[in-house]
Design goal:
This protein is mostly helical and 236 residues long. The chain contains ten helices and four strands; from the N terminus they run E-E-H-H-H-H-H-H-H-H-H-H-E-E.
Length: 236
Amino acid sequence: MPHDMPSRETFRIGSVEIPKITFPYNMDSILNGYMAANDADYRYVAIYGIERPQLLDDSTIDLKLFKVYAALKLIEVEPNNGLAILELVDGLADMNDADGVKLVLQSLEQSDGIHLYPVWDEDPMFQLGWFMADFQRYEEAIEAYRKCVLKPFASGKWVVWIHLGSVYHELGDFQEANECYQHALESIEVEPDPQYFDTARQTEVINRLAEQTFRREPYAGERIKYGIELKPEDNN
């Protein structure tokens, strides 16, 4: 069953809704001090986090919370930068805030004027499917992937089909999983992109997973953003 998000206080930066988060009173001065000492900016901290914690003025600071704060500051500076918003989503996921992730991505999906490249891996619904699957909220992952796969991406749709199939596979819905894997194989033939993807390797993996669905075997893959890999014990 879909997970009902609890009511929580939110605020907006531009057109994106963001969950309200309580930060230590001195977070701003600590961030500014770290950036000055490390010759970094909001974007760098939002993406890479704290690489040199010894430069922090307060060693007790929550580093995951610190990264989220940097992402929020970046969004304040660049409110129409969708990639900055995705950095916030990554930070919320690191804090295990699944509802926060969902809130931001659904808001991003509905927003206007936000700059994201029209590619599958930056699509809010692909991101939502990825994170919901990671949080084992599989019905929500399926709903998000189903929306994503309907979009007219120039390439990479086969990756979305793989991920959708992997969720059905984990749920034990072998028929739906196999249908998704077959869609993935068909899409690879139509839109191969060897510059960015090892499509031969992914074709092999999808075929192995499809065989498992015929044998009604448990899911043996590991989701990675750019496809699926087999777990080591099934890689022989």
